[in-house]
Design goal:
The structure holds 2 protein chains of 2 kinds.
Chain A lengths: L1 E13 L7 H7 L3 E14 L4 E5 L6 H8 L7 E6 L8 H7 E5 L11 H12 L3 H15 L14 H13 L5 E5 L7 H18 L2 E5 L3 H7 L2 E6 L2 E7 H8 L2 E8 L11 E7 L2 E7 L5 H11 L2 E7 L3 H11 L1
Helix pairs in contact in A: 5-6, 6-7
Chain B lengths: L1 H17 L3 H29 L7 H22 L5 H7 L3 H4 L5 H6 L6 H20 L5 H27 L1 H4 L3 H15 L8 H10 L7 H8 L13 H26 L2
Helix pairs in contact in B: 2-3, 2-7, 3-7, 3-8, 8-13
The chains are: A alpha/beta, B mainly alpha.
Chain lengths: ~325, ~260
């Protein structure tokens, strides 16, 4: 469905001069440095897959998404989306993809939501029956009944992102690109989004590529992840495998009933202590959280526990260092 | 055909968005009326003291000013938001236009309307009929048609100049300053007959930044103001507007292409 081969994207960044009349000299100087935002990336996504695209800020995720959706022209290498070259065949590509940028809405700000949808129907020339059928299906699934007649500017962030996703799917796209769809979104809306995306994927076979910083998104939705760092692809494969290999350190927080001095556990390292709470890190292959909790519970009364999984940033750091 | 229909739909949504803010609507119109009253009385004071400017008396000047207001009103209603492009490129909201199967320009131009233009147009209409009555204008049908065409082409000239200016954002990201200087310059000169500024200025606003074709040359033709007979090229306002539009469309196309190379 998506084929990316030796893809590169370079940006020319003007050299900023310093000193006297810097602004004027900048204007007339042709000096540039080349920044390679995406550097020789290859991967492919099969029909109906949900792939998580992760990496630190500035790693090149958004640049890649923009090349896949036809906004940016690749410097070299090739991209095809369902056989179409997104930049050269922008219009054809636009008809078969849906794009959501979590940070900015594509809806009309001042008018009731339904007016944005009507306009999109005109833009994509969606058949009236298909449009109505999709609306009737998606609005209840996303819980948008209450906001359908509300202007977008009056919506909460969660409502807005849900409205944007609905908008991106009205024309039955084969592929859905989601660029940080859950950033800043409340827990309830996030759950709606997860359920909705999996359901659409199951029901329609829509291929989904999403970028995120949220481990929850990845765990709920993606069986496969592609990790990039500084423009390079550093991992492509199974989520479980990645977490096992590179997210080795997990954490557990144990809160005791009373204050406990000098408490140590074999196979785990005490990393933080705060009142009755203690945090331990341990290696996935050496012990399990249950074992630790049992060990602690046998010695002192335990009030509460929390198991903390490593975040994506941590895993990516490990991935990068191990490379 | 689809594009015209689509533009209509865009405008419908733009109007719908505007009527959500009723207070703004009235304040906007009233402030434009006040602004124009001040402008006109300044010109009035000038003419009262000098009696005439060149060979233009007070009613000629009102005609000239009203002509500009009519075309500026039409330009304003439909194209005032051309200057939003800079902000859209910087914030990356322009991207949305590129992932939909429609012309980015159509989507951009259809995103908004501005009702301050309505105020300008009303002032222009009032001024025009006042001047026409005072001058006892008796036009044949042909003159009326030429007048309407020139008002429209005046709107298009202003649109094209601002369209070119806005498109420069694709290269510099910050072209707002240059555009607002050009805008101020235009505003200043449209209120006076160009011939009072001297020869070089006249050449500049005829050949290089042809804003004299917005209202000056059409008024020269319609009011017979040319001292030594009207020359053919002074009729050319509609042609100039098409030429400028073609240039603007070309610059825009280049700019969108460059955007795809650099992003924001």
């Amino acid at each position: 469905m998506i084929e990316v081969n030796h893809l590169k994207k370079e940006f020319r960044i003007p050299v900023q001069k310093k000193g006297r009349f810097a602004a004027v000299r900048n204007l007339f100087s042709g000096e540039h440095t080349i920044k390679r935002a995406v550097d020789d990336i290859s991967f492919s996504v099969g029909n109906g897959e949900i792939v998580g695209f992760i990496g630190k800020n500035g790693a090149g995720k958004s640049t890649t998404i923009k090349m896949l959706s036809g906004i940016l022209q690749p410097t070299s290498g090739s991209v095809t989306v369902n056989g179409i070259r997104p930049f050269d065949q922008r219009m054809e590509n636009a008809r078969q993809i849906g794009v959501v940028f979590g940070q900015k809405t594509q809806l009309w700000w001042d008018v009731p939501l339904i007016e944005s949808y009507r306009l999109l129907r005109e833009i994509y020339k969606i058949d009236r029956d298909i449009y109505q059928k999709n609306l009737d299906r998606y609005i209840p699934m996303l819980g948008l009944e209450e906001v359908i007649n509300k202007p977008v500017r009056q919506m909460s962030l969660g409502q807005r992102v849900k409205s944007d996703i609905c908008a991106a799917l009205l024309h039955d796209p084969r592929i859905l690109f989601l660029d940080e769809p859950t950033i800043g979104v409340d827990v309830v809306s996030k759950k709606y989004l997860h359920d909705f995306i999996s359901e659409i994927n199951r029901e329609r076979g829509t291929t989904v590529l999403l970028t995120t910083h949220d481990m929850g998104d990845i765990e709920k939705l993606c069986s496969r992840v592609v990790v990039i760092d500084a423009g390079h692809l550093i991992y492509d494969g199974d989520l479980k495998n990645m977490v096992q290999r590179f997210g080795a350190d997990r954490f557990v927080m144990i809160e005791f009933e009373e204050s406990v001095e000098d408490f140590q556990i074999e196979k785990a390292e005490l990393i933080r202590s705060e009142g009755n709470r203690k945090w331990f890190s341990f290696h996935r292959s050496e012990t399990t959280p249950m074992e630790l909790i049992r060990f602690a519970g046998d010695r002192f009364p335990v009030h509460d526990i929390e198991i903390i999984e490593p975040d994506i940033e941590g895993i990516v750091r490990n991935l990068y260092e191990s490379k | 055909m689809h594009n015209i229909r689509l533009y209509g739909q865009f405008l419908r949504v733009a109007v719908l968005g505007k009527v959500q803010y009723k207070a703004d609507f009235f304040v906007g119109i009233v402030s434009v009326l006040v602004l124009n009253a001040v402008n006109l009385s300044l010109i009035g004071i000038l003419v009262y003291n000098f009696n005439t400017l060149g060979n233009w008396n007070i009613w000629d000047l009102l005609f000239l000013y009203s002509f500009w207001m009519l075309s500026r009103g039409i330009y304003g209603v439909f194209f005032w938001h051309l200057s939003d492009l800079e902000e859209m490129i910087v914030s990356g909201t322009f991207d949305a236009y590129l992932v939909r199967p429609a012309s980015p320009f159509l989507q951009f131009i259809g995103k908004d309307i501005s009702y301050t233009g309505v105020g300008d147009f009303l002032v222009g209409l009032l001024g025009f009929f006042l001047a026409a009555a005072q001058m006892k204008l008796q036009w044949q049908l042909g003159r009326w048609i030429y007048f309407v065409i020139c008002v429209l082409s005046g709107a298009l000239i202003q649109m094209a100049v601002n369209w070119i200016g806005a498109s420069l954002c694709f290269w510099t990201t910050r072209s707002g300053a240059a555009v607002s200087i050009a805008e101020r310059f235009t505003v200043l000169m449209q209120q006076y007959p160009v011939n009072i500024f001297g020869k070089y200025f006249q050449i500049f606003v005829t050949c290089f930044l042809p804003v004299a074709f917005i209202n000056y040359y059409p008024s020269v033709v319609l009011l017979d103001k040319a001292a030594d007979g009207i020359r053919v090229w002074q009729y050319f306002a509609p042609l100039v507007s098409f030429l400028l539009l073609a240039i603007a469309a070309f610059v825009w196309r280049k700019g969108v292409k460059r955007y795809a190379g650099t992003g924001n």
